[in-house]
């Protein structure tokens, strides 16, 4: 096997594309070949300390947006929002103030000896600075209403003003029903975002989720880090939730249920069955909850390469990547969360792709969309989907990039989620044309499909998925795999930093693949559709 240097990949690609698509073959002049040099330069800059970790509501965010719109202008892309590259995203910043709060959990007539951060966390879900509670707790199992699974944990019980105690994840497969709630995979009903949304629909005052590492797919420290001592963000309108949102550790939940005279293990077991009914706990939440609340304006950056076909140019393929990361936090040691992989890589890839798309446009238009505040709960893409800059009905697809391959070129490429729509077939075609194959699907245990910006498009009927790194590395497979795995320790840490020695052949390959797939869609005869029966299959939102 020849070494897959970027130039080899590029020339092999040009040849194989010409062979694969004689009908609208990319001639050498017309080929869109993503270059490593600009991708590396954008990556190094976006990940540098100068941008201070691109934190929502921080100075680094303003610098990042200015950089992206300047680059889009310099590349010759058209503004995506009238004469502006910016789309306003109105956000509320909320920081819990546990020291000023007097919130306590009582069971069996006694307050539990628990402390904020270590044992539980809470914050307002409605961007309001002050709340006072005296509310009963009710255990609602998984807290799911799923007509498609004939499942309803609430059984029409009146839960207005209650604090709902819930398990995360969704009902596990049984011998009789191995495929319920997508078997071992996580459905949207299992995501904590769904639980908060459903509690609001039930009229509850608040939610306390019970954390366990297997059900959440991450440890308590992840929750502690993102809920205590930091500002959390939500859209200033439209997605406001219950008054209180929070989590407690498994130990806290055990102590609470015990003090309330309940057997938590028995209740959990009961919650695995359809007949489960909400269980009022002899426990309540009382006291004041205080938080600092401020309004913040952030921006999505949208830039367009108009299509060449007089009719099809009214339709668009959207490539997206979130530009934000965790910013600057704390005041000692390294305080900058550079987010080189997450997601300076995807943002830089979009710029390098846009450079080629301008030079070699397609029949349909192509939008390059850098979204804000992904790390705060996919807020920028949610804001886009609720006020789209291009009609969703004329949006062919969304291809999202988040955290790209910094290790080396691969023989496979991750396209999980594409199989839900006609994009699946096109994804295969694009892979074959580059001499790659689709990475073997892994059970979606952590609900990856619901945790990236493409999901806000999917929810609104637009076929969408995120392109992910392959795992079959061309060079030094074992060593490369180990390098990729070692990133787990740098994920959401200050050590997610750019390293000039990175082999970017895999990142260029992923960007090239995404652009090729986007061009296949943009040059295709018709808009791709959902497969009948998929949980998200519905017509594109009329917005
Ligand atoms: Zn990310």
Automatic annotation (TrEMBL):
The keyword Signal applies. Transmembrane segments: none annotated. Residues 300-509 form the Peptidase M28 domain. GO terms for molecular function: aminopeptidase activity; metal ion binding; metalloexopeptidase activity. Keywords: Aminopeptidase, Hydrolase, Metal-binding, Protease, Signal, Zinc. The keyword Metal-binding applies. One of its GO terms (biological process) is proteolysis. This is M28 family peptidase. It comes from Duganella vulcania. InterPro entries: M28_fam (IPR045175), PA_dom_sf (IPR046450), Peptidase_M28 (IPR007484). Residues 1-25 form the signal peptide. It comes from the Bacteria.
């Amino acid at each position: 096997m020849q070494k897959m240097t970027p130039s080899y990949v590029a020339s092999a690609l040009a040849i194989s594309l010409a062979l694969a698509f004689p009908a609208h073959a990319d001639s050498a002049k017309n080929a869109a070949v993503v270059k490593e040099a600009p991708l590396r330069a954008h990556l190094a800059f976006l990940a540098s300390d100068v941008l201070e970790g691109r934190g929502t509501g921080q100075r680094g965010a303003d610098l990042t947006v200015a950089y992206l719109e300047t680059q889009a202008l310099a590349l010759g892309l058209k503004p995506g929002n009238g004469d502006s590259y910016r789309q306003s995203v109105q956000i509320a910043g909320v920081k819990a103030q546990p020291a000023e709060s007097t919130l306590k959990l009582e069971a069996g007539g006694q307050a539990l000896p628990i402390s904020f951060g270590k044992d539980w966390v809470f914050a307002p879900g409605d961007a309001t600075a002050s709340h006072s509670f005296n509310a009963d707790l009710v255990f609602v199992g998984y807290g799911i209403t799923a007509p498609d699974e004939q499942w309803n944990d609430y059984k029409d019980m009146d839960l207005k003003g209650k604090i709902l105690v819930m398990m995360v994840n969704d009902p596990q497969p049984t011998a009789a029903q191995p495929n319920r709630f997508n078997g071992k995979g996580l459905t949207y009903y299992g995501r904590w975002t769904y639980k908060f949304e459903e509690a609001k629909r039930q009229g509850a005052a608040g939610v306390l989720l019970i954390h366990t590492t297997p059900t959440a797919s991450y440890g308590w420290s992840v929750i502690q880090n993102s809920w205590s001592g930091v500002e959390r963000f939500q859209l200033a309108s439209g997605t406001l939730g219950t008054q209180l949102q929070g989590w407690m550790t498994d130990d806290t939940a055990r102590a609470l249920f015990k003090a309330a005279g309940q057997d938590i293990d028995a209740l959990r077991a009961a919650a695995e069955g359809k007949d489960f009914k909400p269980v009022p706990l002899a426990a309540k939440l009382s006291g004041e909850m205080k938080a600092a609340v401020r309004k913040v304006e952030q921006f999505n950056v949208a830039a367009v390469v108009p299509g060449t076909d007089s009719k099809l140019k009214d339709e668009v393929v959207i490539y997206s990547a979130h530009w934000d990361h965790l910013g600057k936090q704390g005041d000692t040691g390294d305080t900058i969360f550079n987010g080189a992989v997450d997601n300076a890589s995807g943002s830089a890839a979009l710029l390098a792709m846009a450079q080629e798309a301008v030079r070699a446009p397609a029949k349909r238009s192509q939008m390059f969309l850098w979204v804000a505040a992904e790390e705060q709960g996919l807020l920028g893409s949610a804001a886009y989907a609720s006020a789209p800059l291009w009609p969703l009905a004329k949006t062919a697809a969304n291809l999202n990039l988040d955290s790209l391959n910094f290790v080396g070129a691969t023989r496979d490429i991750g396209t999980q989620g594409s199989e839900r729509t006609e994009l699946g077939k096109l994804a295969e075609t694009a892979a074959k044309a580059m001499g790659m194959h689709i990475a073997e699907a892994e059970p979606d245990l952590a609900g990856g499909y619901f945790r990236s910006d493409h999901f806000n498009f999917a929810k609104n009927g637009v076929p969408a998925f995120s392109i992910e790194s392959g795992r079959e590395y061309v060079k030094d497979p074992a060593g490369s795999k180990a390098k990729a795995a070692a990133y787990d320790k740098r994920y959401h840490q200050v050590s997610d930093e750019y390293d000039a020695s990175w082999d970017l052949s895999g990142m260029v390959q992923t960007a090239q693949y995404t652009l090729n797939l986007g061009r296949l869609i943009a040059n295709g005869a018709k808009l791709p559709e959902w497969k009948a029966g998929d949980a998200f299959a519905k017509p594109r939102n009329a917005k």
